[in-house]
Amino acid sequence: MQHAICFVSSASAHLPEDKVETLLMEWREKNNANNIKGMLLFSEGNFFQVLEGEKNKVLGLFEQIREDPRHHSIIQVVGKDLSTGSFDDYIAEHLKHTTFSKPELVSEYCESVKGMDPQTQRHIKIILETFIDTRAL
Ligand SMILES: Cc1cc2nc3c(=O)[nH]c(=O)nc-3n(C[C@H](O)[C@H](O)[C@H](O)COP(=O)(O)O)c2cc1C
């Protein structure tokens, strides 16, 4: 059974910004090894993550992530079984000032969830748009 989880959270003081890039790559490699797809975006101290894959693996990983002291204020937006997966890959990006003015980013990321059911897609898109919009404030 495939399962998807989407959450937003905020980085804690245990996570210096200059370490983020290295961690994103490390976690991406682990996810690739476990066949977990989705995306993890970091922007202005906040995370946006979608995890998609075999249900037990995704739930187990999310348990670990929830206990991780490197972030707090975790808000889960989506947690549901899927008939088919939506992501081809695992995207991990640190959005920096240089990428702020790229309007194509939202549609590019939204493209990745187009295989999900319409309601889940809508939830993810709303949070993603808010996540990307507010980084410029
Ligand atoms: C916001 C956030 C997202 C994370 N995402 C992942 C992830 O996608 N994959 C992963 O393996 N670890 C991720 N981690 C790290 C896990 O919480 C945990 O440290 C890691 O899975 C432990 O791996 P280990 O038992 O191999 O040391 C994330 C941590 C945070 C704070």
Give an account of the 3D structure.
The protein is α+β, with helices and mostly antiparallel strands and 137 residues long. The protein has one domain: 2-Layer Sandwich (Alpha-Beta Plaits), CATH 3.30.70. The chain is 39% helix and 31% strand. The protein contains four helices and five strands. The chain has helices at residues 17-33, 55-66, 104-111, 118-134, and strands at residues 2-11, 37-43, 46-54, 71-82, 90-94. The protein has a five-stranded mixed beta sheet, sandwiched between helices. The model has no long low-confidence stretch (mean pLDDT 88). The structure holds flavin mononucleotide. Flavin mononucleotide (FMN) binds next to helix 1, strand 3 and helix 2.
How do the helices and strands line up, and which of them pair or pack?
Elements: E1 2-11, H1 17-33, E2 37-43, E3 46-54, H2 55-66, E4 71-82, E5 90-94, H3 104-111, H4 118-134
Parallel strand pairs: 2-5
Antiparallel strand pairs: 1-3, 1-4, 2-3
The structure holds flavin mononucleotide (FMN).
Shape-level CATH architecture: 2-Layer Sandwich
Please tally the helical runs, counting DSSP H or I stretches of 4 or more residues. 4
Radius of gyration: 14 Å
What is the CATH C level class, in words? Alpha Beta
The strand count comes to 5
Number of domains: 1
The helix-strand sequence is EHEEHEEHH
Strand fraction? 25-35%
Largest sheet: 5 strands, mixed
Described by its quaternary structure, the protein is: single chain
Q: What's the arrangement of strands in the largest beta sheet?
A: 4-1-3-2-5
